[in-house]
Design goal:
The complex is a heterodimer. In chain A, the strands form four sheets. In chain A, strands 1-4-5-6 form a four-stranded antiparallel β-sheet, with no helix packed on it. Chain A is globular, with a radius of gyration of 22 Å. By secondary structure, chain A is α+β, with helices and mostly antiparallel strands. Helix content of chain A is 21%, strand content 19%. Chain B has 15 helices and five strands. The longest helix of chain B is centred in the middle third of the chain and has 19 residues. The chains are: A alpha+beta, B alpha/beta. At the A-B interface, helix 2 of A face helix 8 of B.
């Protein structure tokens, strides 16, 4: 059953909650829902609005429901709630069922009060288990290489919304399932960011000795290259003008075919179009302007040359799309 | 209780009426907290009645503004404090005090009577009185001391719970089950210190059906969870079987019954007509003209205050529109009434006395 079955004019909620300075939208929505005895996920879906009731919360709808001017919310709240990337439906295939994005919930009710109490405190000053971060980004995000240990590794968020780092699991949130995040651990704090935007910070739960032995990349696949290393070796600045970029549709196994070999792009990208290029002996898989995977070249130069003569041969198939379509 | 008074007209009052006329497109319902709050804050004052000579010299926009203000006023014409209304307010006030520290088995009130006898007016005026008193003690808008809902036809427990949620402004999606809705409603009502729950159209509740029994159980559950006094209103509920069966006996044991009936042709009726006539704002109306027609009005309306109000308001509006500016028997004859009153007027059947 879909929430669109109840069309109704927006009205303010009976209990008003004042937004806190630099509070995230997700945190404010959760506090607003709890104050009005509503399920946060239900309120979040209602704030997303028709037709999909899915994605990031609409600030205009939130302003009506919380009874405060939109300008006040825009000034008080930081970035939008994390939205799950909608998957484009395959050409000719049935539409994929969509489910509303879930607001990250604390694991235990008793954690909620601590989370709300500490969500406006600066990073590193609280003993709370989870500290939603706020903008502007802290120094460790603005200049990641200046972190104390200088190591930033990439991790992919699992289907349960966690990453594994140095033998311990750290939660990022189900909303980021399948996405790559960057992790660093300076001064006993595990800090998680994505594309320069801070996401979560946790007190270290793994033994400090494991920091030294941590692998730069968590992949079990042989031949995979760390994201930061791949970016250094082959910068993405000239990606748009690079004629070597071809686009591929990720197959149901999460792989793309490139020059006669299969390279894993990730199950989270199944059915989506990604850009692929080979530069400096590294095959880069790009999605949404962001490098998601990098592999050592497994194909031969002859295979690549033949492929570049007919770069977009998959376009003639039923499921290929231009690179700019997603 | 708002009663029509001969308040002195002022420019401020004219401006308020002008704003009211401008906002006539905004429809507010009592079944939402915003509409209820506007109803509670609404204190209509009679518009300025200019001297006849000055009024006759008005032209164009000034004449139109004067007519519009008086037309809007006569669409409402205030509320008359009848004996039934006073009984509901006083009894309800006593019950809310008695239930203040009750932890269960709170007492309630049922207002029952024929259509047009002023049941809804009585319970809403009681709710208005209670909310105004609560606002004086706690002048902040975080409280919702009164909840007003109507029982929808063919109601199910979820429909009733959604009615409560709709009044409070809680967004209910189809994903929310009845437990979610009830939890949200009870939680918000407790947090906002709801002390009075008015449930109208209770005759839509048929205890003989499964859905009706479940709705009754839901209301009972609400009354246990929400520390408030529940007041029901409906058409002849004692004859509709609301007090029969196990659930009916429980209702009968906890709820007092106040019947509202038609007015007999006695002094109270004459006083009612005189009060309504004082509230009229017509330039050429002769004071006492309606009082002399009280027997005719009683025969025409069958002693129903709803029909009387409709008749006088309709005739007053007609008098403003045609420029006669007075109520006569001829003007009253031109206004059609509801079928019940019309049947009573043609057959001349007598109704039961007001206070047995």
């Amino acid at each position: 059953m879909s929430p669109r079955a109840i069309p109704e004019a927006l009205r303010p909620l009976p209990i008003r909650v004042r937004p806190r300075p630099a509070e995230t939208v997700a945190s404010y929505v959760v506090r607003l829902a709890r104050a009005n005895h509503l399920q946060p996920s239900h309120l979040h879906a209602y704030l997303c609005g028709p037709p999909d009731w899915f994605g990031a919360a609409d600030l205009g709808r939130l302003a009506v429901l919380c009874g405060r001017p939109l300008s006040v919310l825009q000034r008080a709240l930081t970035g939008p709630a994390p939205a799950r990337q909608p998957t484009p439906e395959p050409v000719g295939g049935p539409p994929r069922p969509q489910t509303p994005a879930r607001t990250p919930k604390p694991r235990h009710t008793t954690d909620l009060a601590a989370t709300i109490r500490h969500d406006t405190q600066p990073l590193g000053t609280s003993a709370a288990p989870a500290i939603p971060t706020s903008q502007p980004a802290p120094a460790w995000v603005a200049s990641p290489m200046a972190a104390s240990n200088g190591r930033i590794v990439d991790r992919k968020v699992t289907s349960t919304g966690v990453i594994s780092y140095a033998g311990a699991n750290y939660s990022v949130g189900r909303a980021f399932t399948g996405q790559m995040v960057q992790v660093t651990c300076p001064d006993g704090m595990v800090q998680i960011s994505r594309g320069g935007e801070p996401l979560r910070a946790w007190s270290r739960r793994h033994p400090p000795a494991k920091d030294a032995a941590i692998r730069p990349d968590r992949s079990h696949h042989r031949g995979e290259v760390a994201i930061d290393q791949a970016c250094r070796l082959a910068p993405l600045d000239d990606l748009v003008a690079d004629p070597r970029v071809v686009h591929r549709l990720v197959d149901p196994t999460g792989s793309v075919s490139f020059a006669g070999c299969y390279y894993l792009a990730g199950h989270a990208l199944t059915g989506q179009v990604v850009g692929v290029r080979c530069a400096g002996g590294i095959v880069q898989v790009v999605h949404g302007g962001e490098l998601v995977r990098a592999w050592r070249q497994r194909h031969t130069p002859q295979q690549e040359q033949r492929m570049l003569q007919r770069p977009n041969i998959q376009q003639r198939t039923a499921n290929a799309r231009p690179l700019t379509s997603p | 209780v708002v009663s029509p008074t001969n308040a002195n007209p002022s420019s401020h009052g004219r401006a308020a009426w002008r704003a009211a006329v401008d906002d006539e497109d905004e429809h507010h319902h009592l079944t939402t907290v915003e509409g209820w709050r506007q109803f509670v804050a609404d204190a209509p004052r009679p518009p300025a009645l200019l001297p006849t000579s000055r009024w006759e010299r008005l032209e164009g926009a000034d004449r139109l503004a004067d007519d519009e203000a008086r037309l809007d006023y006569h669409t409402r014409l205030g509320v008359v404090a009848t004996s039934a209304l006073r009984q509901v307010v006083h009894t309800g006030r006593r019950l809310t005090l008695l239930n203040r520290h009750a932890i269960s088995a709170r007492r309630g009130l049922i207002v029952s009577g024929a259509a047009g006898t002023g049941k809804t007016t009585a319970i809403t005026q009681f709710g208005k009185t209670h909310e105004l008193a609560d606002r004086q003690r706690h002048p902040d808008l975080d409280r919702i001391p009164v909840v007003y809902v109507t029982v929808p036809p063919a109601a199910t427990p979820r429909m009733l719970a959604v009615e409560f949620a709709r009044f409070l402004g809680l967004p209910i999606t189809a994903r929310a089950n009845i437990t979610d809705v009830i939890e949200a409603v009870c939680g918000v009502c407790c947090d906002t210190r709801t002390a009075l729950v008015l449930v109208d159209e209770i005759h839509n509740l048929q205890l003989s059906t499964r859905n009706g029994a479940e709705v009754s159980d839901t209301l009972k559950y609400f009354s246990e969870r929400i520390p408030a006094t529940f007041v029901y209103a409906g058409v002849d509920v004692e004859r509709a079987g609301l007090f029969s069966g196990t659930r009916g006996q429980q209702l009968a044991g906890r709820f007092g019954l106040i019947p509202t009936v038609a007015f007999p042709y006695q002094d109270e009726w004459k006083g009612l007509v005189a009060t309504l006539e004082d509230a009229l704002r017509l330039h050429r109306h002769q004071p006492g003209a309606l009082v002399r027609l009280d027997r005719y009005l009683h025969q025409r309306t069958g002693g129903m205050i709803g029909s009387l109000s409709h008749l006088l308001r309709g005739a007053a509006i007609e008098a403003i529109l045609d420029g006669s500016e007075q109520l006569t028997k001829h003007t009253l004859e031109a206004v059609g009434l509801d079928h019940a009153a019309h049947r009573h007027g043609t057959t001349g059947t007598r109704r039961q006395p007001a206070h047995p």
